[in-house]
Predict the structure.
Amino acid sequence: MIFSHDTEQALLSIVELVNSSPERNGKEQLPDVATLDEFVARHRVSEIAGLTERDVHDVHSLRERIYPIFTATSDAEAATFINAIIATTPVTPRLTDHDGYPLHMHYFIPGATLAEHLAADCGIALAQVVAAGEQERLRSCEAPDCSEVLVDLSRNRCKRYCDARTCGNRLHVAAYRERRRAAAAS
Ligand SMILES: [Zn+2]
Ligand SMILES: [Zn+2]
């Protein structure tokens, strides 16, 4: 594991959140309270109940503020975006061992909304990546027609596509056809 378990979980939820935007893949993946509820359950976001349309709106605007962190061209630029997210959300660092998990840090304030919760805890997770000198692990998919983001949690930093089965495989097939065409022409 590259980062702590909590940090990696937070990073994976951020990636799904950012890629849920119609700006990334053309289809809104979190259009309503029901899909947001599923997101919360899937990522085991704690202390969240009674979501409303307001939460949907706030989470949509948060993900657009997180996106530039993945396209930043330097760690200083990423740090500016991350600091801006953390600065606008209330944080209360504390240790907790809820739901049978070992002691770990929470940063959101008790009673936080979903957007506040994600801004605090995901903001700190992103800050830890940059503070560890690992900003280059936060990237965009390399497929030319894909604008999804990814976090590379592989030891040798070899992840290039948002999803190896879709973008990675699609490019693999395209490169193979290109080689065959080149071979046939020569
Ligand atoms: Zn927790
Ligand atoms: Zn992709």
Notes: The first helix runs from residue 5 to 19. The pocket of zinc ion (ligand 1) is lined by residues 46, 96, 98, 101, 104, 106 (CB under 6 Å).
